[in-house]
Amino acid sequence: MARIFDVVEYPDEMEGEIVHRIPQEGAGDFRIGSQVIVREPQNAVFLRDGKALDTFSAGRHTITTANIPILIDLIGRAFDDRSPFTAEVYFVSMKEFADQKWGTPQPILVRNPGMGLGVALLQGFGSYSFEVADAQQFVNQIVGVSGMYTTQDIESRLRSMLLSKLQDLLGETTEATSVPELIGLVEELGIGVRAKAQDVFKAIGLTLKTFYIESLKPSDKSAEELRAMGMLDMDVYTQLQAADAMRDAAQNPSGGAGLTAGIGAGMGIGNVLADSLKGTGSGAGAAAAGGGSSGPPDVMTPSEAATYLKVSEEDVVAAIDDGQIKAKKIGNAYRISREALDEFLSS
């Protein structure tokens, strides 16, 4: 025989728990005259046939046909006051759920007008808080028939919503603001995200209380990681790899022969990427240096290879001697194929 609930309550503090269902499985049997005890800060929502119907706020309530009119209309009035009717009760925590964490799993591409590439990749993290504004709507839109619904069950969805709004706002803001200026506007950006996200939170019965950006900075992703994310084409990727090598050599000038710190000083990452994004690429850069030819020659001297790599001739010869660049020595002169230089850049 089904259990009849004469007293319905959930006295738990609901730490991290947004919704708790009674009974946790199946439908419960209730009747007119049963007591519903709702604590602060809770709401109790009656649900039947998968739809949230009547809601009780904090306090002690006696079930009557007057305070569950939608449910009674759905069931029909053809029963006496002592006959049980089936439904489920969802206790919904109405408190603020604070210190929820967010972060950018992948960097966000933004404009960076007037600086370097004209674009930048930003990473950030911070915290936010939310609360249930409409218990009945939240149960209808999100919870379904779950016996329990926690902050962990919804955090992925909320983070996706917030990151989408953050990306929109960064795109709008960087049309007129450089990245260094943008990083100094984290408080204003946090307020902007909160304003942008209110409608999507409201649509599922929630209110976004706070949104804080604790860190916003250029991404430290390597060329390899960015290419794996599909954010770089091969030309930009090749040149970024070369720039990474220059940077590493500059940070470790005593690491042996080969590409030394002088190359890092002579070849800025921003310049490499700027050339690529302008459509010149490494080949076009060499063509310009060679007096307007259609492209770099298939076989180059160390001097031409230096122009192609945008480094000094001495550095090219050092890389050849160290075995990093394949070259053919004819008499006292080196000749290097363009394929060997491309292979070096992509290694």
Question: What can you tell me about this protein's structure?
Answer:
The protein has 13 helices and 16 strands. Helix content is 39%, strand content 27%. The chain has 347 residues and is α+β, with helices and mostly antiparallel strands. Helix 11 packs across helix 12. Mean pLDDT is 79; it is low at 255-270 and 276-293.
Please render the helix and strand layout as text:
Elements: E1 7-9, E2 17-22, E3 28-30, E4 35-38, E5 42-48, E6 51-56, E7 59-62, H1 69-75, E8 85-93, E9 97-103, E10 108-111, E11 119-132, H2 135-143, E12 148-150, H3 151-173, H4 179-183, H5 186-202, E13 206-218, H6 223-228, H7 234-251, H8 261-266, H9 269-277, H10 281-289, E14 299-300, H11 302-309, H12 313-321, E15 328-330, E16 333-337, H13 338-346
Helix pairs in contact: 3-5, 7-9, 10-11, 11-12
Give the number of DSSP strands.
Answer: 16
Label the overall shape: elongated
**Kindly state the mean pLDDT as a whole number?**
79
Which stretches are low in confidence, meaning pLDDT under 50 for 5 or more residues running?
255-270, 276-293
Strand content: 25-35%
Q: What is the end-to-end distance?
A: 74 Å
* Oligomer type: single chain
Main sheet characteristics: 6 strands, antiparallel
Structural class: alpha+beta
In helices, the fraction of residues equals 25-40%
Radius of gyration: 32 Å
Tally the helices: what do you get? 13
N-to-C SSE string, H for helix and E for strand: EEEEEEEHEEEEHEHHHEHHHHHEHHEEH
